[in-house]
Design a protein that fits this description.
The complex is a heterodimer of chains A (290) and B (74). Chain A is α/β, with parallel strands linked by helices. Helix content of chain A is 33%, strand content 18%. Chain A is built from 9 helices and 9 strands. In chain A, the strands form 2 sheets. A 6-stranded parallel β-sheet of chain A has the order 3-2-4-5-6-9. A two-stranded antiparallel ribbon of chain A has the order 7-8. In chain A, helix 3 runs parallel beside helix 4 and helix 4 runs parallel beside helix 6. The longest helix of chain A is centred in the last third of the chain and has 18 residues. The radius of gyration of chain A is 25 Å and the shape is globular. Chain B has a 4-stranded antiparallel β-sheet with strand order 2-3-4-5, with no helix packed on it. Chain B contains 1 helix and 5 strands. In chain B, strand 3 and strand 4 form a beta hairpin. The radius of gyration of chain B is 16 Å and the shape is extended. The model of chain B has no long low-confidence stretch (mean pLDDT 85). Chain B is mostly beta strands and 74 residues long. The chains are: A alpha/beta (290), B mainly beta (74). Chains A and B meet through strand 1, helix 3, strand 4, helix 4 and helix 6 of A and strand 1, helix 1, strand 2 and strand 5 of B. Strand 4 of chain A pairs antiparallel with strand 1 of chain B.
């Protein structure tokens, strides 16, 4: 079986090789298809291509792809054009298990290296995290939150729509957090029913995991452990569960989120934080964390 | 795996038993990526296997991108 697999030889059209070159230069279209000519246009040259327009790929079909890609504007440099990067965390946070395709997921194996790249790339000065998530894998979510919290560059989060369950620690992991007026955050206990497919875990294990979430949230926001736990175990708020739904201002009132705002406020804060870092050599943080 | 989510788990896990994803590892412009074949000629990038963090910001390698296979030297 293994041998058979090795026998399958596949290479891929290198339709975007040489990403560091030719990105801004419009490539000539295929010489075989001159197309309609405007009266003022010069005669198409039959001379060999000028040296400043090298063709990085073999001629033929590949070149068509290359031309198409460039027409579609998809030949981009990996270098950042903006000093601020945005990370969108939507749907389920996917961790160790690939979820069925009806789930829209944000996968931690993508997000974490991207966070590393943001930290490492000197052209990136700040990160905006936009959340609209229903929660997901608790360990993956905590890993993402920890990684965001450990970045040396200014980070700001914005909860749009919803930042539920494991989205809560991710939202508070940034240096400063915003929530839009209508966005909601659901705080509820971890459930045993989440383990349908895993090795049997004891209730104690679940409890420990829950403590990790609570401690992280309390450590990275202005809410106390006791208050967060209280919200988590409130009865009568949710129809099918115990817990609390915080809408926009409520999240700020309980000091879980720093401010009600939108993209404008979040970006303004980030710009200020970048300037602060340049000026003082250290990050601007919430008062209680300084 | 513990899911901490507001979504009912039956909704999340629906169709899990029927899922038979197949993946190939291919080298794309010098970077290993995991690709899910969608036809004989095309595949969709599932994830990047690289130690260079900047590869994860490369638009050409983003998961979900459809690539074309051509026979050639592996």
């Amino acid at each position: 079986m293994g041998k058979e697999k090795r026998g399958v030889v596949i290479s891929v059209i290198q339709d975007y090789v040489d990403l560091n070159k030719n990105s801004t230069q419009p490539q000539p279209t295929l010489p075989t298809q001159p197309g309609p000519r405007l009266p003022g246009q010069p005669q198409p040259s039959t001379a060999p291509e000028p040296p400043h327009q090298p063709s990085p790929v073999p001629q033929g079909e590949t070149n068509t792809n290359l031309a198409n890609l460039q027409q579609m504007g998809q030949m981009e440099l990996p270098e950042p054009k903006s000093n601020i990067h945005v990370m969108n965390i939507v749907g389920q946070v996917e961790g160790h298990m690939v979820l069925p395709p009806q789930n829209k997921t944000s996968k931690y194996e993508h997000l974490i290296p991207q966070l590393v790249a943001v930290e490492q790339n000197p052209g990136i000065e700040g990160l905006l995290i936009i959340l609209n998530t229903v929660g997901g894998d608790v360990e993956a979510g905590l890993a993402i939150a920890e990684t965001i919290a450990s970045l040396s560059k200014p980070t700001v989060s914005l909860v749009l729509g919803g930042g539920h369950s494991i989205g809560v620690p991710i939202a508070v992991s940034a240096d400063y957090s915003f929530i839009s007026e209508t966005a909601t955050m659901t705080i509820h206990p971890l459930r045993l029913t989440g383990q349908v497919l895993s090795v049997p875990q004891t209730y104690e294990y679940l409890d420990k995991m829950q403590d990790r979430v609570i401690r992280f949230v309390a450590g990275h926001s202005s809410i106390s452990e006791e208050k967060f736990r209280e919200l988590m175990f409130t009865t009568g708020e949710l129809a099918r569960d115990i817990g609390t739904v915080l809408v926009g201002r409520d999240a700020v009132r309980f000091r879980l989120i720093d401010e009600v705002g939108g993209v404008g406020e979040a970006l303004a804060w980030l710009k200020g934080a970048i300037a602060h870092l340049k000026e003082h050599g250290r990050k601007r943080r919430r008062e209680h964390l300084q | 795996v513990i899911l901490y989510t507001t979504m009912p788990l039956e909704t999340v896990y629906q169709g899990l038993e029927d899922m038979r994803p197949s993946y190939l590892e291919v080298k794309l412009a010098g970077t290993m990526v995991v690709v899910e074949p969608i036809s004989l000629e095309q595949g969709r990038i599932v994830r990047i296997l690289s130690t260079d963090p900047q590869d994860y910001l490369n638009p050409g390698l983003q998961p979900g991108r459809v690539i074309n296979f051509v026979p050639g030297e592996g």
